[in-house]
Amino acid sequence: MKKKDLNMGYCGLALGLTGAFNILKYLGGAAQALEVVLLGSALLLLGLFAVEVCKNRENILEAGDKTLSLLPTAFMALANISAHMEMEKVWLLLVGIHLFYGVFFYRWVLFRGAPLVSYYIPLVGIAVNIPAAHHLQMDMLGRFLLVYGGAGYLAITWRLLLYWRRFRESNPLPLMAILCAPLALWIQGGMIYLEVSVLIKVGLFISLLTTLSVYLLLPAILVGSSPTVWAPLTFPTSAAALAHLKGGIFLGSSRLEALGYCEVVLSLGILLLAAGGTLVSILKKQECEEGVI
Q: Any stretches that span the bilayer, and where are they (predicted)?
């Protein structure tokens, strides 16, 4: 039977919207008003994805590797929302689901086909919860997630480098933006639990290189594509921006901090363009369906 792919753009954009919660506090009080808009938009997109899952529930287990590797973006977005609203038990449940899904993914999907950049999400994406674990005083869990995410990053990066030619051929251009996110998430956790600044410096240097490579791809991604295609850009760019901004503060580097602020503004611009365009396209689609009826 032919494999079915769900529309994961809704989850990717919802993750980008919820990921922006953490960078708004660096933009002053006026930016806080955006939280309600971001939260409402993210919940709407996750609701639309839930409807699509219900309609295609019989095909989920037969989904392609790309869909299976992107599915944890829903867990990450919901975890961001629950942590932001201080719903501790819901957050813990979502972290547990993500961990178990990572075990399933490692056993049944990873290393079985062409290497995909989205393989980072099930194994390294869980590092998005490290700051929340620290905030909720669950430091043992936070340290575990740091080690788990770091091990996953090294394993997947090794495979991507080993099969670099196949990796470039098998990954759609917009998904390459995911390269920004995994190391950036690990760096944010590392600044909480690691006292070795050398590791942070090396991580930031590699993160800056991957982020630069993604921004160089921006014109090719944005020109001639629909807003939903931009969804993979939203969370990775905001995660990288926050890591570089915090890294500049952590290391006392005013230049890196200034670069981080520039990235914050740019990533918010990409997020608003993608979110606005996607919501408009959803409304137009709804109007067309009502017109047909």
A: 7-24, 36-55, 91-109, 140-161, 173-193, 199-218, 230-252, 258-283
pLDDT at 10: 82
The number of helix segments (H) and strand segments (E) in the chain equals 14, 0
Residue 1 lies in a domain: no
Exposure string (b/e) for 221-241, b if CB count within 10 Å is 16 or more?
Answer: bbeeeebbbbbbbbbbbbbbb
Q: For residue 122, give the nearest of 188, 65, 171 by alpha carbon.
A: 65
Contact yes or no for 229/239 (Cβ under 8 A) = no
Residue 81 lies in a domain: yes
Please name the residues in contact with 191: beta carbons below 8 A apart, sequence gap of 6 or more: 200, 246, 247, 250
140-191 tens-digit pLDDT: 999 999 999 999 898 888 888 888 777 777 666 666 778 888 889 999 999 9
Range of the domain at 220: 9-285
Q: Which residue in 25, 86, 75 sits closest to 46, CA to CA?
A: 75
Phi, psi torsion values for 171, nearest 5 degrees: -115, 120
Does pTM surpass 0.85?
no
